[in-house]
Structures are given as C-alpha cells and as structure tokens.
Amino acid sequence: MVIVMKHNATADEITEVVANIESLGYKAHLSRGEERTIIGVIGDERPVEPERFELLPGVERAVRILHPFKLASRDFHPDDTLVRINGVSVGGREVVLMAGPCSVESREQLMETAAAVKAAGAQVLRGGAWKPRSSPYSFQGLGLKGLELLREAKAEYHLPIVTEVMSPQEVTLVAQYADVLQLGARNMNNFPLLAAVGEVQKPVLLKRGMMATVEELLMAAEYILSRGNQNVILCERGIRTFEPSTRNTFDINAIPVLKSLTHLPVIADPSHGTGKRELVTPIARAAVAAGADGLLIEVHNNPARALCDGAQSLTPEGFDALVADVRRVAEAVGRTVGLPCLA
Ligand code: PEP
Ligand code: MN
User: Which of 41, 81, 191, 276 could link 1 by a cystine bridge, Cβ 3.0 to 4.6 Å?
Assistant: First the structure.
C-alpha cells in the first residue's frame, strides 16, 4: 500500500503516519518527490484497510499497490530514479553508453579497448573478471587479476567500471574495484546474491534472466531495494524463445513496459540480445527509440581473437559508427548521447 501525503503535509503529520504504520508491525519507506511525499507500507499489509490511514491529518489518499513489487513500482515512486555512477547519471535525459570487452583478457586488450570506447564517447567501461560460462571448459575469466587490470584502466582513462559478481562471498571484494556491480542473466534469481548486493550502497546492474518475465525481473530488483540499496539499473538483454536465428530474442517491448511499471533506469544490451555483430547497431537504435536510458555494448580491439563473445563484439570502428547512429536517434526522441572524447 502507498500513502500519498498532501503537498502541504507537515513533518509532524508525516511522522504520525510513519508511527501508525510501525505500530501495526509494518515498515514505512519514505519517498520524497518534488510535489509530495509518498509513504510505502512494507510487509503483507492485506489485513489493513487503506481507509484507516485516510483519516490521519495530512493524508491525501491511501491505495493498495496491485503489483507484487512495491519499492520498484512507479505507484510508490512516480519520479524517475537517477542512479549516479561517480559523475554519470543513469535515468536522466542522457543515454549512457557502457562499453568494453565481454571479458578482461590481458592488459593490452583492455587498455586498447578502453582507449577506443572512451574516444568514441562511452562513459562507463565494462569487462568481466569472473565469467559465467555455459561450459566449464571455456575461458572463465582472469578473476582478481582482471579486477586489477580494470582498476588500471579506470585510472588511465577515467572511466568508471562495471563488472560482474557471481557469488555473495565475492561482493565485498568486487565492490572494492567496481563502480557498478553487474548481476548476470544466469544469476537474476540467485537470492543470496541479490540480498548481498542489497547490503552495499554500490549501483547494481541487474540483467533480465534468460527466461524471466518482466515481473520476475522487477521482483529480483525488489530483493535488492528491500535490503536498502536503491541504486538499481535494469537491463534487457534478450530472452530465450523458439527463434534460432539470433542468440536471444531482444524484447524491445520490455523497455517501455518497464519504464511504465518502474521508476528505475532501464538499459539495453543488444550484444547479448542478438549475438551477432551486424545486428547490434540496429537493435541499439531501436532500444534508444523505445526509451532505453543507456546501452551496454561489447567492444573488442580484435574480436576475431576474443576469448569470449567475439561474434557479437564490435570493433572500435564499429562502435564509433554505433555511437554516431545512436546519437541521431537519441536527438530525435529528445535525448542526448555523450560526445566523443578527444583527450
Ligand atoms: C555479459 O555481460 O558478458 C554477460 C555474461 O551477460 P548475460 O549475463 O546477459 O548473459
Ligand atoms: Mn558477453
């Protein structure tokens, strides 16, 4: 349930509503918008009638949220949430570009790729140190060495880092290096991991599970939010369907559906969404036109030699072309894209 306060409600009136919620054994979660404060009643509040709160001074209305997710819901938090990654805001007017290799393979590979994506206008560097591979015989990532290389690249190119964390035990370690903790598609339902990233105050990039519905993605986000971390970015990365011509089926619908259901930023990963280099730019354009707040793109200095996901990785030149294309689409829908960086 959410309790919408009148726009002129006083601090005492808000405190009284919170005390009332707590006296019933629930938690209260305050969301202070520009216009008014909204108070969420957290817990199974089905036995309580909304009308009892409407009698309290300063309350405009109390309504049940019909969705099973609450903190993630737009009913509870009507304004868009901005997730800040160092100096970069995700969820505002700017479409944020996050780019880099699927996995960190070597210093040379990471530095060359980081230089290229920075020059093209990316604001965040991606790169996996621990890789959730389908086969135990595939390259599993450089682990800690990969994190150290990411730290070097961050210092050299002034790009915040997004990298995947695969287990709750590694959250503290990865958080020392990463600016954004990525939870991969295969871990969207790893509840101990969701809880662990909910305990830290680092932004989390939560990818949609390979077979997850939009509602299941939002419930996964709810786990993180309910532990106290409000900095969640959702990512559409394609789902598995019966269509074999692409690696996954990029669900363009999910972007406007999510934007209407939740206040959290939504970004798109057309690299995993298609699995094919030549499809990445068209789907990136479509995602931005559909309202994506950012793009996560795999770029490799030499895709033919990539240890992971080479077929869907753009060359640096390909990424340059993507940025130019996406900028035109962004402008057409009233958004901006970071400018190429000459430094
Ligand atoms: C990745 O970003 O490299 C990755 C493994 O993505 P996903 O979890 O979406 O498959
Ligand atoms: Mn990948």
Answer: 41
Q: Give the architecture (CATH level 2) of 2-63.
A: 2-Layer Sandwich (3.30)
Q: Which two tokens stand for residue 212?
A: 């997850």
Phi and psi angles of residue 337, each rounded to the nearest 5 degrees, phi first: -135, 140
Q: What's the whole-model pTM score?
A: 0.94
pLDDT computed for residue 66 by the predictor: 82
Residue 29 main-chain phi, psi, to 5 deg: -125, 120
Fold classification of 83-337 is TIM Barrel (3.20.20)
Q: Contact at 8 Å (CB) between 295 and 312? A: no
How far, in Å, is the centroid of ligand 1 from the Cα of 184?
5
How far is residue 113's CA from residue 305's CA, in Å, rounded to a whole number?
13
In testing the pocket of ligand 1, which one of 166, 272, 298, 309 has its CB within 8 Å of the most ligand atoms? 272
Query: Could you give the CA distance from residue 236 to residue 185 in angstroms, rounded to a whole number?
Result: 9
Sign of the alpha-carbon torsion through 221, 225, 227, 230? positive
Ligand number nearest CA of 98 is: 1
Half-sphere exposure of 340 (CA within 13 A, CB side): 15
User: If you take atom 1 of ligand 1, which residue's CA is the nearest one?
Assistant: 102
Q: Is the dihedral of CA 47, 194, 295, 83 positive or negative?
A: positive
Q: Enumerate the domain spans of the chain.
A: 2-63, 83-337
Q: At what angle do helices 316-332 and 277-289 cross, to 10 degrees?
A: 20
Distance CA 155, CA 159 (A): 8
Convert the pLDDT of each residue in 15-50 to its tens digit. Answer: 999 999 999 999 999 998 888 899 999 888 888 999
Query: How much of the chain is in helix, strand and coil states, percent to nearest 5?
Result: 35, 20, 40
Kindly report, residue by residue over 99-150, the tens digit of the pLDDT.
999 999 999 999 999 999 999 999 999 999 999 998 999 999 999 999 999 9
